[in-house]
Amino acid sequence: MTLITAAVVVLLIVATIVMVLVSRPATTDASTPAGELPATRADTHVLDEVGAGAPTLVEFLDFECEVCGALYPYIEELRAQYAGDINYAFRYFPLPGHANSMNAALAVEAAAQQGRVEEMFHKMFETQSEWGEQRESKAALFRTYAEELGLDVMAYDDAVADPATRVRIENDFNDGRKMGVGGTPTFYLDGQRLELNSLDDLTTAIDRALGR
Description:
Elements: H1 2-14, E1 45-48, E2 56-61, H2 66-81, E3 87-92, H3 101-112, H4 117-126, H5 128-131, H6 139-148, H7 153-161, H8 163-179, E4 186-189, E5 192-193, H9 200-209
Parallel strand pairs: 2-3
Antiparallel strand pairs: 1-3, 2-4, 4-5
């Protein structure tokens, strides 16, 4: 509960900060259709999939974001609490002020290409304190995570180096900007952005969507 309490405090503090994003050229691939679930694309990673008839929670996140890291244990508890009742998906939103946010996203997306997205998703948040908020590249460290997870490292290297992998991540980022995302984490429930003043607001919104 200590981590969750800390997450609440951090979230409330960060909610008062205006996030200024560096402009990036639009690279959205118009050939990628919208996903079946609200606020997703066809290539969005849905970690908990119940179906189109269930409420869909989408989190725009940055793996180096301290607030995302602080909320991670709570979101995992929430996923367990609503297992079988809601869809949960994440989308990349690497903030330009974080030196390794794109490197982390590339590592996760490279793992996804080998069907191991959730393992790398967890690895990034569980190790964030070891590599976050540092200026030097941690790409080599992330490669060791791929080795630890038993990935095909040559295929991993190829995916990280492939410009299409970066474009895949930037598509999420640019979609997020168009949808009004200005910082992380930002949550959408059934396509509607949630304005959270407390973590209870998140479960309240989900319960309402479930008709509880």
